[in-house]
Specification:
By secondary structure, the protein is α/β, with parallel strands linked by helices. The protein has helices at residues 3-7, 19-30, 42-56, 66-72, 85-91, 125-132, 147-151, 169-179, 196-213, and strands spanning 10-14, 34-39, 61-65, 75-78, 100-103, 108-111, 114-117, 137-140, 160-166, 185-191. The longest helix is centred in the last third of the chain and has 18 residues, at 196-213.
């Protein structure tokens, strides 16, 4: 998959007004890709899209509601809080049928001892997404990319690898290419969707590292 191929696609971002979704949308818009921001609040989605058009110098960013985002996009990133994950995907089962869905949701909890991974009955947020969207091709990716770095216009390149997990080779290859549309980022295939749980859980460790060292830590895979 080339960047020219990616430029022909519309990338939907559910939760595109939040830090992670907005940060990834910003980077894709900088790369000249077509991005559709989805939100429960259409006005908020359109406001975010207008800001991204100005910041990224691109006219290929629009805002709409979640249902419109799901229906109009060629592939869709899910970047919503875990508590809203299942209700949102259940409501979008029909418009997301046949679509590649990228789940970057991290089911984390926080208490006075710090961050920790929450138990998900299906095994992970990504596996929950696949159970709720049986006609979609769900992948898991973008769990460990700092929203602060994504949103910082002074950061021209990110020193990070993105692990991409899924059952369908075409889908994981496409998501790897989407990761590599961000300068400095590599997309690395990380296994089947059943392995998404430990990838999501690792985010708790990275949050703890970032708090201790006042950093924006990510991961790199060596030897590849």
């Amino acid at each position: 998959m080339t960047q020219a191929d990616l430029s022909a696609l519309t990338i939907g971002v559910l939760g595109g007004t939040g830090p992670q979704g907005c940060g990834l949308a910003y980077r894709w818009a900088l790369g000249g890709l077509s991005v559709l921001i989805g939100s429960r609040d259409v006005d908020r989605a359109e406001h975010t899209a207008a800001s991204l058009r100005e910041r990224a110098g691109s006219r290929r960013v629009r805002g709409t509601d979640n249902a419109g985002c799901a229906a109009e996009s060629d592939l869709v990133l899910v970047a919503v809080p875990f508590d809203g994950h299942a209700p949102l995907l259940t409501s979008l089962r029909s418009p997301l049928a046949g679509t590649i869905v990228i789940d970057c949701v991290n089911p984390l909890g926080f208490d006075n001892r710090g961050p920790y991974p929450r138990v998900v009955p299906e095994g992970s947020a990504a596996q929950q997404a696949q159970a709720l969207l049986p006609e979609s091709r769900v992948t898991a990716a973008f769990h460990h990319v700092s929203a602060a770095l994504l949103d910082d216009p002074e950061v021209s390149s990110l020193d990070i690898d993105v692990l991409v997990l899924g059952e369908h080779r075409e889908a994981t290859d496409l998501v790897c290419a989407l990761a590599e549309a961000i300068p400095g980022v590599r997309g690395i295939y990380g296994g089947r969707l059943r392995n998404a749980g430990q990838v999501e859980a690792l985010t708790a460790n990275l949050v703890a590292i970032n708090r201790r060292y006042h950093a924006h830590a990510g991961i790199r895979i060596t030897g590849v």
